[in-house]
Prior knowledge:
It is built from no helices and 16 strands. The protein is globular and about 45 Å long. A hairpin with a 2-residue loop joins strand 5 and strand 6. The model has no long low-confidence stretch (mean pLDDT 89). It has a four-stranded antiparallel β-sheet, with no helix packed on it. A four-stranded antiparallel β-sheet has the order 5-6-7-8, with no helix packed on it. The chain has a four-stranded antiparallel β-sheet with strand order 9-10-11-12, with no helix packed on it. 0% of the residues lie in helices and 55% in strands. With 168 residues, the protein is an all-beta fold.
Amino acid sequence: DLYNFTDLKNNSIGSVSVNEVKIVDDDKAYIATNIGLVVFDIKRREIKSTYRFEKPVRTSVIVGDSLFCGTDAGIYWGLTSNNLLDNSNWNFFLDLIFRNLLYFDGNLWGHYHDNSCWKVECSTKYFFFIKDSINGITTLSDGKLALIQDSVVTLYESENEYAQLCFD
């Protein structure tokens, strides 16, 4: 089904650019925009929350009871059990700027703004270079992670177990 939803377009703040949409638990959409992160209830077709930042949100990911938001100034995180409408409940995590942020194999994985891929350990905040020249990064329905390059797709079962598909 297709539904027209104009609340974001017709808001009182001004023009809203959508940077990313992630569906969570089949009933919520996390919409990263230039005004913040919008949590949309898909079944009720209504905005549940809008977490406003002073900078655009490019990406987001839920990890257990934590919500991570990638902004133009770095990554912020907050506990979903806290009132995240209150900006004081958000914590600065790292100054890495990701286009896309995913959770895979116990760590955050990000598509960095220079088209490289990095892994970030949540507990230590250490980050590790994975691969250059990435066009895209996504998780698949079978739990694998795919790193997409021009003519190569690397499919990860885990951080240390992967296969490459080459297209010539």
